[in-house]
Design brief:
The structure holds two protein chains of two kinds. Chain A is built from nine helices and twelve strands. Chain A is α/β, with parallel strands linked by helices. Chain A has one domain: P-loop containing nucleotide triphosphate hydrolases (Rossmann fold), CATH 3.40.50. Classes of the chains: A alpha/beta, B mainly alpha.
């Protein structure tokens, strides 16, 4: 049984269908990438996976159970999402934001205990956010906010991590740090990762499995070598590209031809 | 904070149109605390049967309105929201007035129940009017709907006022402006029970509120069951507000000022914010009510006048600051 599996999902916000007959599955311990042009339904698909949105038809299963039947708290213990960016009106410290990642693990009247603080501390250490723990979230730069949100997701101790363009604002050093962290967690704790990105090379170099979306339908799905081809890129993105191999690992590498 | 509240209560007990020496006051209080309770002098009569209930009631009302403000501001993610602006107070008041006019006051808790119905109808209307939109739009249209509903209720209240005979008119008018002097001990204890029970239940939702203020999507992602949490919060808060409004009338601006001030001092963590707002709101209203009693002594101002006089400029200040 797959950890995450979508079966014939249809979805629409209004009349216009956003998702049509989408089926795929992700196994435990896999790193999967979702790519596709603007408006192809990438973020929507992430929200359907974690049950924020429910499909109009078809079913979305986590551990074989429909997301409609899961309690929200139980999903949040299993699946964490790092959103693109959030703005909040009321002032919170970065540290408080990360601490909120512990919410699904706590009862209404229980305060966080030592163990919770330890987990939060480690999550902030791993994401290099301890330096601004006591600064207001709103006053941080976009990249810093992104790292705080990553720390919050880690504090949830999820089995599945969903990332929505989570590296766009990170500088090179923090990108490398984050990707290394993901691989470590993937290797040591069988963390399953599903990430949405515009960066074809990021997907090609890091994912075991790539889902290429086009207008709410799955255009291609498979390992990087199968999905990242000049023909696919031309067809979906309408750009010419050169695909060669990364000499270090043999994975596909794309250069845009202008 | 608790200390400030107690000190304020002491001061408030001693001043008024009949001044009581602090030493006498302390002696009487000590006597009451040690169990030998009997009213022996005029001073003690004033302390225990007039001022003390009134001060306790002011504290309860202040705390309730402030808590209401905290919850509504969190739910709408808008620091300008409060039960007054959203029309919940107006709805409760209308319910209460209808109750008074049809003679529900002869039934035990008849008026508060009708006020609660009024508040619930308002919440219901808010959702219908603002329904169909989502996200930030939803928040704004909810606030706008509140303003519209509030205006409608005010008109309805004025209509009722113009048809009742003049004897009831004065007392209803005074009550509408906020009047802490009319509640009986029995009613005060009902309000106190509602407040403490409501607070205890709401406090359990504090962590959820922290997530809700960051946006509904974030709350969902982190495991808040919004479908259940939001109606639960609205109904609980409406209940507290309705009880208070039915007994004390409309006292504006506390619900807006207190949460905001407390957020400046204590940050936005609702586990701290809720008790802080409750205590500060209680202190603030005790102070305002004391002023209302003292300024024109022996005549009294409605306490709503004092809070609105402080609150309106503060509201404008907030708006200005938000714009820049």
């Amino acid at each position: 049984m797959s950890l995450i599996s979508a079966r014939n999902i249809d979805f629409s916000y209004t009349e216009k269908p956003v998702m049509e007959n989408v089926s795929f599955s992700v196994e435990e311990g896999q790193i999967a990438a979702i790519i596709g042009p603007n408006g192809s339904g990438k973020t929507t698909l992430l929200k359907i996976i974690n049950g924020t949105l429910f499909p109009d038809a078809g079913e979305m299963l986590i551990d074989g159970k429909d997301t409609k039947e899961w309690l929200r708290k139980e999903i949040a213990k299993k699946v964490a999402i790092v959103p693109q960016d959030i703005s909040i009106i009321f002032p919170f410290y970065a540290e408080e934001i990360v601490l909120m990642g512990r919410f699904p693990h706590l009862n209404n009247y229980r305060f966080e205990d030592k163990n919770d603080y330890k987990i939060v501390f480690e999550a902030m250490e791993k994401t290099d956010t301890l330096a601004f723990a006591r600064r207001r979230f709103n006053e941080l730069s976009a990249g810093e906010r992104q790292r705080v949100l990553i720390a919050r997701a880690l504090a949830q101790e999820p089995k599945v991590l969903l990332l929505d363009e989570s590296t766009v604002f990170l500088d090179l050093k923090h990108q490398v740090q984050f990707l290394t962290l993901l691989r470590q967690l993937n290797a040591s704790e069988q963390l399953t990762v599903i990430f949405v990105t515009h960066d074809i090379n990021l997907a090609a170099q890091n994912a075991d499995r790539i889902i290429l979306l086009d207008c709410g339908k799955i255009y291609a799905i498979g390992n990087p070598a199968e999905v990242i081809t000049a023909a696919h890129i031309k067809e979906v993105y309408d750009v010419e590209s050169l695909i060669d191999r990364n000499p270090q690992n043999g994975l596909p590498r794309m250069t845009l031809l202008t | 904070m608790l200390l400030i509240f107690f000190l304020l209560c002491l001061v408030s007990l001693s001043v008024g149109s009949f001044h009581i020496e602090l030493s006498h006051l302390l002696r009487s209080l000590a006597k009451a605390l040690t169990g030998s309770f009997s009213i022996t002098s005029q001073e003690e009569l004033i302390i225990f049967s007039i001022r003390l209930p009134r001060i306790l009631f002011a504290g309860i009302v202040g705390a309730a309105l402030s808590i209401g403000g905290v919850i509504f501001q969190a739910l709408l993610r808008n620091p300008l929201a409060d039960p007054y602006i959203l029309g919940i107070s107006g709805g409760s008041a209308l319910g209460a007035i209808v109750g008074i006019l049809i003679g529900a006051s002869s039934f035990y808790l008849g008026v508060p129940l009708l006020a609660f119905c009024g508040a619930l109808i308002t919440v219901f209307l808010l959702f219908i009017v603002a329904g169909g939109t989502r996200g930030a739009l939803w928040d704004n249209s909810l606030l706008l709907s509140g303003v519209v509903i509030n205006a409608f209720f005010s008109a309805a209240i004025l209509f009722f006022l113009s048809v009742v005979d003049s004897l009831e008119l004065h007392s209803i008018t005074f009550w509408l402006m906020g009047d802490l002097s009319r509640a009986s001990l029995k009613e005060i204890s009902v309000a106190a029970i509602c407040l403490f029970a409501g607070f205890a239940l709401l406090y359990g939702q504090a962590r959820k509120l922290n997530l809700i203020v960051q946006g509904e999507e974030t709350a969902l992602h982190l495991g808040v069951d919004l479908e259940k949490t939001k109606p639960w919060l609205l109904i609980l808060t409406s209940l507290i507000i309705a009880v208070v409004v039915s007994l004390a009338g409309i006292i504006g601006f506390i619900g807006i000022m207190v949460p905001h001030l407390m957020r400046l001092v204590f940050g936005s963590d609702h586990r701290l914010l809720l008790p802080a707002a409750a205590l500060f709101g209680a202190s603030f209203l005790v102070l305002a009510d004391t002023l209302a009693r003292v300024i024109l002594a022996p005549a009294e101002l409605p306490v709503g006048v004092i809070t609105a006089l402080c609150g309106a400029p503060y509201f404008i200040f907030l708006l200005k600051r938000k714009a820049t």
